[in-house]
Design a protein that fits this description.
This protein has 498 residues and is of the alpha+beta class. The chain contains 18 helices and 18 strands. Strands 1-5-6-13-12-11-7-10 form an 8-stranded mixed β-sheet. A 5-stranded mixed β-sheet has the order 15-14-16-17-18. Helix 1 crosses helix 4, helix 4 crosses helix 10 and helix 5 packs antiparallel against helix 8.
Length: 498
């Protein structure tokens, strides 16, 4: 007896940190992206697309999880041994684009872009290795008016997506503030110890997720997470840690009061005082434009974990009450973020080019809005299904589908090889509002039978006897062939569709 080996088949599995996207989420995302695009266009930003793959040296090494392989990015070599990487955000590719095309671009240059980004980070709940961002950036504007405008853009965008005031807040700070606090506390400067400085920044950036104790550990010796992984800390002294945590907690009820507290906290530090002055200028612009403390606040705990930020930084937090599928309260947190990065283009040109941008996490924002609204939006009706009663008449059935499509109605002819019962089950799975049937009897009469599947399903719950079912023939009508489009439209109108 021969011993046949089993074929070596791959497992149908997803890599960790990735997900398949359902039709419902794709449609919701498309609607969300269009709403965001309309606001960004209204602010005067222009669209741009850049490739998902860049030369690794063009991206730089700016990711928060810099201790992971490939510095947090997915990298590979091409056939001429050049290192390439999947982009980890849309900002670094923008800097490369501006550096290569600056002579032909208006100054300032205002662009928006949406697309997937990839991060070689440790995946977890709500943290994926591929996700979609929607960015807006102003390149070549030295004034913090550009930063103030992006905060207003974020607020207007969230309201365009259906959020009310009080359901969100734009939190703003300035990297220069924490630099000033660290300077006063005796922490090494960026030039002397950039690694320590960024460890402090990244520790503070995790305040919402880890709490004060977790941040305190990261500012000190380090922290071990639930999985046992250890993250080395900033090695600050207890007095330095206290100074940082006191600063982080120095926010007040109004922007005016917070600015006063910050001025005291960084007094004597030129860098810190410059940060306060920039925030005061932004506050004046928000106030003049009617963006009050109910929409934009100054929060010293906002620092952002990416290394390239150089000035104002901001986050959009959702504060509305939300519950998960088990009814437990959920704190959503940040769904958008950004800040000033005056050094990215300089990496290519040697000349400093001021820039500021905001990035919306599209997938996270969609998930969050569904939590707030109590679930995903209702799925749209599926296509009308033209059943194939007689296989030698496929051309006739295809003509019916075409007639409906030309009238603007979603329609498909059944393309499988099963009988009528299976075709009706197929239509149910597709979410079809109705099916079109024409057998020999209907053809002889010049008629078409249309079954309203939604009404039929409802009536089936009320009819208990098979004989009664056959006699009632619920939600089924026969109409002349020429009335196909109107009859289908009448059924769709019952359910608010066409």
């Amino acid at each position: 007896m021969s011993n046949k080996s089993k074929p070596d088949r791959p497992k149908a599995r997803l890599p960790r940190g990735l997900q398949d996207v359902s039709p419902s989420e794709i449609r919701q995302t498309a609607r969300m992206v269009e709403a965001i695009r309309e606001v960004f266009e209204r602010y005067g930003f222009e669209p741009l697309e850049t490739p998902a793959i860049e030369y690794t040296d063009a991206l730089g090494k700016f990711l928060p999880d810099s201790d992971r392989p490939n510095e947090g990015v997915f990298s590979f070599q091409d056939d001429d041994e050049q290192w390439l990487s999947l982009r980890y955000d849309l900002t670094a590719p923008l800097a490369r684009f501006v550096a290569a095309n600056q002579q032909g671009l208006p100054r300032p240059y205002r662009r928006y872009q949406t697309g997937p980004v990839f991060r070689n980070e440790k995946p977890g709940p709500g943290r994926f290795r591929q996700f979609t961002q929607f960015d807006a950036d102003t390149v070549g504007a030295p004034s913090v008016a550009a930063d103030a405008e992006l905060c207003m853009l974020g607020a207007d965008t969230l309201e365009a997506l259906g959020l009310s005031r009080g359901d969100y807040v734009i939190k703003v700070s300035n990297r220069k503030l924490l630099d000033g606090v660290m300077e006063k506390a005796g922490v090494a400067s960026l030039a002397d110890n950039p690694e320590q400085r960024m460890t402090v920044m990244r520790a503070v950036d995790k305040l919402d997720r880890l709490g004060v104790e977790g941040v305190e550990a990261l500012l000190g010796k380090g922290r071990k997470d639930e999985s046992g992984d250890f993250t080395k800390g900033a090695e600050l002294t207890s007095d330095q840690i206290k100074a940082v945590l006191t600063f982080v907690d120095s926010g007040a009820a109004t922007r005016k009061d917070t600015l006063a507290a910050l001025k005291d906290a960084v007094s004597g530090s030129e860098e810190g005082e410059a940060g306060v002055a920039e925030l005061a200028e932004m506050d004046a612009l928000w106030t003049a434009a009617g963006f009050g403390d109910d929409r934009i606040v100054i929060d010293p705990s906002i620092v952002r974990g990416l290394e390239y930020y150089t000035g104002p930084v901001f986050e959009a937090d959702l504060t509305a009450e939300a519950t998960d599928d088990k009814g437990r309260p959920v704190r959503i947190g940040a769904v958008a973020s950004g800040g000033r990065y005056d050094g990215l283009v300089e990496r290519f040109t040697g000349q400093q080019v001021p820039a500021s941008g905001v990035s919306i996490g599209v997938s996270r924002l969609l998930y969050s809005l569904n939590l707030i609204n109590g679930g995903a939006e209702d799925e749209p009706l599926g296509p009308v299904v033209i059943t194939v009663f007689e296989k030698d008449r496929i051309a006739d059935y295809q003509r019916m589908a075409t007639e409906l499509r030309q009238a603007g109605i979603r329609a498909e002819m059944y393309l499988g090889g099963s009988g009528m019962k299976a075709q009706l089950k197929y239509a149910d799975k597709r979410g079809a509002p109705c099916v079109v049937i024409q057998g020999g009897d209907e053809l002889e009469k010049g008629e078409i039978t249309i079954k309203d599947l939604i009404e039929g399903a409802r009536l089936s719950q009320e009819i208990e006897d098979n004989a009664e079912w056959r006699e009632a023939r619920p939600a089924q009508v026969s109409v002349p062939e020429g009335d196909l489009v109107q009859a289908v439209r009448d059924i769709l109108a019952r359910y608010g569709s066409d």
